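Each field is set out as follows.
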Amino acid sequence: MKYYIIAGEASGDLHGSNLMKSLIKQDLNAEFRFWGGDLMQNVGGTLVKHYRELAFMGFLEVVMNLRTITKNLSFCKEDIESYNPDVLIFIDYPGFNMRIAKWAKLKGYKTQYYISPQIWAWKEGRINAIKRDIDKMYVILPFEKSFYEDKHNYPVEFVGHPLIDAISDRVQIDEYEFRAQHELSEKPIIALLPGSRKQEIRKMLSIMLSVVDDFSDYQFVIAGAPSQEFSFYEQFINNPNVHFVSNKTYDLLSVSTAALVTSGTATLETALFKVPQVVCYKGGWLSYQIGKRLVKHIKYISLVNLIMDKEVVTELIQDDFTPERLSKELQIILDSYQRARFFLDYYDLEKKLGGKGASEKVAQLIYNSLN
């Protein structure tokens, strides 16, 4: 069968690649055409556009790039019609994907969505478009099933979180070799995960690095995103106790003592590696003010706290994200008592996420639905 997959971010590229691997096991004749990244391209098929060309962050950036976004939408529709797939699979990236889904449904294409838009946080009105335009929805967070089915009478499949597979299936590394390869000392490591887009990295990384001198017994290692070159990060590094590792986030987390993490999927990845963390977020003033008014009232922004429905990790948001607060919170999570608490909560979190096998479950459900 012919599968057309649209993933517009680094996390979507990861989950899309694992879904493609599982679909190949189900469908020996699977053909892929997709919007994604290097990981999906490594599986096989045709990469139409890389997510690096699609990542617009914040309301102002979206407005400034409306012409490019409109061109991408038109091109995507033409490309789908030319390919004529058996099914369209949308992975997160709702601003773009929901528009394509509306068009695709009118054209008679089968539409399936893997990793739901976060309409439980904002734009809940999108439920009407989802009911109208999406044939099947596969959700990865445990509370999403009751949100859709109990509140909105829309049946969905909870398949578990694909990060559990991605992390458990990774090749284990030798810590000594990792440190030697990246010229790291024997000091304990504090990982810095500033995000994947240039705009957010600029806002996050300088504040993260401001605490380096307060923790001279540790070394700080920046997790470089696969979408960015080292030359971009180099401008921020002016301390010999700061190091850089490109596209090795999982390896880095596996040997880290603590982490400073930009809010997003990375907070959940860090938790699954059982690394104590401080969650950070700072957006542009105007974008933050607009977002604050559009987002529904939710208690937390990090996936860890949302899933656990309590404050497992400290969140430093906007004006709270200062060098002083960050230094204080980092000191707290390095305390041995606090670390023990993190480990217990993280184990409970993993249980709630439903265990291994998300990609295989989704692939089987998609394949069966087409047959």
In short: The chain has two domains: 2-161+355-370, 174-352. The mean pLDDT is 91.
